[in-house]
Design a protein that fits this description.
The chain is of the alpha/beta class. The protein contains 6 helices and 14 strands. The protein has a single domain, classed as Metallo-beta-lactamase, Chain A (4-Layer Sandwich), CATH 3.60.15. Strand 12, helix 6 and strand 13 form a beta-alpha-beta unit.
């Protein structure tokens, strides 16, 4: 039994963008972000973290996908992390966990669909989570991490799972400023996944070099860089991997067993 991570999608809205650096057929592509966690693989549960607009295709073409996930965690309310929820039709209410600010965005998104204008009409069983607290998600203890990107009044959230001697943390879209409680919580994790689509820090996203320093500072055994943006070149990423072999650049379909 192991903890398994499946990277169904590893970009923001997806790469390449239409009309911008559109590579020929067969070149590397990245669909919108979606990460699957199976803490007790090959046993259930199967937990989805974020469901971007490509989710329906990702799930229905993933060879090991069960009919439905056991739960969905939404880290924040940006479209590239919630846009695929409209492609889900649960046969029974599906547990969905998100912080308050993301739930507000989710309700606004649901209202765009006249046939199913509420989250409840989509058959989601909505649970609010609070950064800094631990919640049972499909029987697994999941700590919600504070991500300081949308301001302290409306924090985004990350995910930390420590289960059966294995540990994984995911910092969703985060600025270079890392909350002190989050930094303490992720110390020594086996795998740290960080959404970092750019090379240089901004107030809205952490840059890739700073991400590597963060992972080194907290003693993460392995760093996975995901959520690639269109401005980051293959050459720049190759330099990161060359200098730090414990760093992995996420690719669609990549599987990590802890």
């Amino acid at each position: 039994m192991s903890m398994r991570l499946v990277f169904l999608g590893t970009s923001g809205i997806g790469l390449p963008l239409v009309g911008l650096a559109n590579p020929p057929s067969g070149s590397a592509r990245h669909s919108s972000f979606c990460l699957v966690v199976q803490p007790s693989y090959p046993q259930p549960p199967t937990i989805v973290i974020d469901a971007g607009p490509d989710f329906r295709h990702q799930w229905t073409t993933w060879g090991e996908a069960p009919p439905m996930p056991d739960a969905i965690i939404i880290t924040h309310g940006d479209f590239d992390h919630i846009g695929g929820l409209a492609g889900i039709l649960p046969p029974a209410p599906l547990p969905l966990y998100a912080p308050a600010f993301a739930i507000e965005r989710l309700r606004q998104y649901a209202a765009l669909f006249p046939a199913r204008p509420t989250l409840e009409a989509f058959r989601f069983d909505v649970h609010e989570v609070t950064p800094g607290q631990t919640t049972s998600v499909a029987g697994i203890a999941v700590e919600t991490l504070t991500i300081l990107r949308s301001g302290p009044a409306n924090p985004d959230s990350g995910v930390l799972i420590r289960h059966q001697g294995r540990s994984f943390a995911h910092l969703s879209d985060t600025s270079y400023e890392i909350d002190a409680s989050t930094r303490r919580a992720i110390e020594g994790v086996d795998v740290l996944v960080v959404n970092t689509p750019i090379m240089e820090d901004t107030g809205y996203h952490i840059g890739i070099p700073t991400t590597v320093r963060l992972a080194r500072d907290v003693g993460a055994r392995r760093l996975v860089i995901s959520h690639r943006g269109h401005t980051v070149s293959d050459e720049a990423l190759a330099e990161v991997v060359r200098d730090d072999p414990w760093v992995t650049i996420a690719q669609d379909g990549m599987v990590i067993d802890l």
